[in-house]
């Protein structure tokens, strides 16, 4: 209070720009000029703790062991879909090889 009075600062404190650290670097000022505390347990940390804890990993391991055929089928399907995607997009990719036909335009393909 003495510092604010001595240097002519307003009684409620000074307004910081949004994103500025406040409360002795314990938070950041938001667009409404409020100091928002920094959450050490942010959303990414909570998600990491949820997905990578031992109970979740054991559950996933048990499911994969029990449904191995579904995992194998999903892997084969992924390889087939990737191959089809590359095959479909290859006709639109320009090449410097003079023996290859010119690349097709995407708009021509969509009109067929």
UniProtKB/TrEMBL annotation:
GO biological process: membrane protein ectodomain proteolysis; Notch signaling pathway
Keyword flag Transferase: no
Keywords: Membrane, Transmembrane, Transmembrane helix
Positions of the UniProt region annotated as Disordered: 93-112
Assigned GO CC terms: plasma membrane
Family annotation (Pfam families): ADAM10_Cys-rich
Ranges annotated as spanning the membrane: 68-90
ADAM10 cysteine-rich domain boundaries: 12-36
PANTHER family, per database record: ADAM10/ADAM17 METALLOPEPTIDASE FAMILY MEMBER, KUZBANIAN, ISOFORM A
Protein name per the record: ADAM10 cysteine-rich domain-containing protein
Species assigned in the record: Pectinophora gossypiella
């Amino acid at each position: 209070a003495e510092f604010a009075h001595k240097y002519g600062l307003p009684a409620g404190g000074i307004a910081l720009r949004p994103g500025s650290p406040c409360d002795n670097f314990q938070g950041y000022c938001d667009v409404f000029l409020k100091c928002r505390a920094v959450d050490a347990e942010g959303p990414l940390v909570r998600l990491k703790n949820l997905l990578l804890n031992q109970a979740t990993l054991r559950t996933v391991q048990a499911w994969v062991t029990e449904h191995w055929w579904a995992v194998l089928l999903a892997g084969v399907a992924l390889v087939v879909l990737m191959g089809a995607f590359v095959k479909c997009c290859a006709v639109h990719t320009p090449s410097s090889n003079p023996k290859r036909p010119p690349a097709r335009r995407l708009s021509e393909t969509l009109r067929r």
